[in-house]
Structures are given as structure tokens and as C-alpha cells.
Amino acid sequence: MSIEKRAVELHNSGYNCAQSVFDACCGCCGVDEKMALAIGAGFGGGAGCGELCGAISGGIMAIGAAFDGSDPQNMPKIKKLRDEFVENLRSEYGAVTCRELKSPERAGFCDTIIARCAGLADEIINNNR
User: Fold this and answer.
1) First to last CA, the chain
2) Max alpha carbon distance in the chain (Å)?
3) CB-CB contact of 43 with 18 (8 Å)
4) 105, exposed or middle or buried, with CB in 10 Å at 0-12, 13-18, 19+?
5) Are 40 and 18 in contact (CB under 8 A)?
6) Which among 54, 84, 99, 104 counts the fewest CB atoms within 10 Å?
7) Tens-digit pLDDT profile for the chain (129 aa)?
8) With contact defined as beta carbons under 8 Å apart, do 124 and 77 qualify?
9) What's the whole-model pTM score?
């Protein structure tokens, strides 16, 4: 099953957008499924307050895990990848906040955004190793 399909399947089974993306990517970033679901729990719905899309947050978590965010030497690489990730979603959907993405003119795109974020995180991780 593709990472995109796995992320949508997780979301449709009740996990939030951040959990779904991070868990779908956990195989390529060295985090086990239980930990990915636990870490992503508070980030759905724009961290519960409509801010940065949880799917984007889940992708950023996967990127940080894949490139060892605990090592200060990796931070410029993670920042570059994070910025690329966010900008790609901003250009594709015109927004990056949950509140904006769930607005009436964009409603119904969560599964599409979740799949796109999971796929993009996987692509960024695998193309920058």
C-alpha cells in the first residue's frame, strides 16, 4: 500500500491528520507506529486551534525524525526541507492553516491534503538522504 493510501486509511479510521501523515511515514523516518500516533495526537486540527494544518505538521515531524532534529548540525537541512514542504502546500492549496483549508471554498479536501502531505514528506526524505 502506498504511503498516501495508508495516510488516508488511518485518517478514515479515526486518527487525526497529523497522526495519519506521521504514522504513514514512520517507516521511512525510523519512528515506530505507536510513537508516531502518540506524538501526533495533539497536532490535529491545527493543534486544536485551527493554525498550521496537522497534515503539514505530521510531515514536518517525519522530516525532523528522518534527519535527526536532535543534532544541531542537521537543523539547517531540516529548516530548508520544512520550508520547501510548507511552500509546496501553500502554492498548491493557497493556505497552510487548518482554518483556511477547511473554509467553505476548500471544504472536503482533507483526505487529498493528507495524502499529498504524506507523499511529499516521503519524497523529501527519500530525495535528500
Assistant:
1) 22
2) 42
3) yes
4) exposed
5) yes
6) 104
7) 899 999 999 999 999 999 999 999 998 888 999 999 999 999 999 999 999 999 999 999 999 999 888 888 888 888 888 898 889 889 988 899 999 999 988 778 899 999 999 999 999 888 877
8) no
9) 0.91
